[in-house]
Amino acid sequence: MSGPTSADRGSSSGERGSERVLGDPQADLALTRGFLSGSATCIHGLGERLRIVPRILRGLNARSGRPLDEHDLADLVQDTATVILRKLDRYDGRAEFDGWVYGICRFEFLNAARGRRRRPRPVEDVELELPVSSADGAEVLNRISADIDSGLATLTDSEREVVRMKHFDDLTFESIGERLGCSPNTAKTRYYRGLTKLQEFMEPRRKEYEA
Length: 211
Description:
This is ECF RNA polymerase sigma factor SigE. With about 210 residues, the chain is an all-alpha fold. It has helices spanning about 5-15, 25-35, 40-50, 50-65, 70-85, 95-120, 125-130, 135-155, 155-165, 175-180, 185-200, 205-210.
């Protein structure tokens, strides 16, 4: 009796979810189609397969000289997983699923790394670089804090809200987007636009802190 065909293996993989024949794109295709149709076992199976996403991104980051810090990577993992799920219906089984995922991870990583190099320094970096003597340190820090509040007041409501959520609540862009009812990319755009305005507001005051 002949062994099971690739189609048989793909069908059984779709039913069992996490069980797959290694290197069988048709089994991968059955898994993704099962996920899209709402199969509980396939949902679990795909979740297990997507555990490679953070490993891929960390590896890319390490080989590229670590342009992204841990917070950046955490945001990127969530953003990339969202992109993969959004494009899942485009996976056609002509290549292994892991290779298809790697291609998306690499594309998203390169975009994030380029954006990181163009990104303005965080507010806390500007604050910490301001020279403060031990004698008047408390007074100067109070002035810096007051100026940051004044700078935040110059932002639009949406920019200010995102900056506060990111810096003071330490939320990811995914979480911010969920709270505000917008996409993570929209949250990022508002954040960096607001951060740039805030840094421009703070820059002329550096000499006052040094006086």
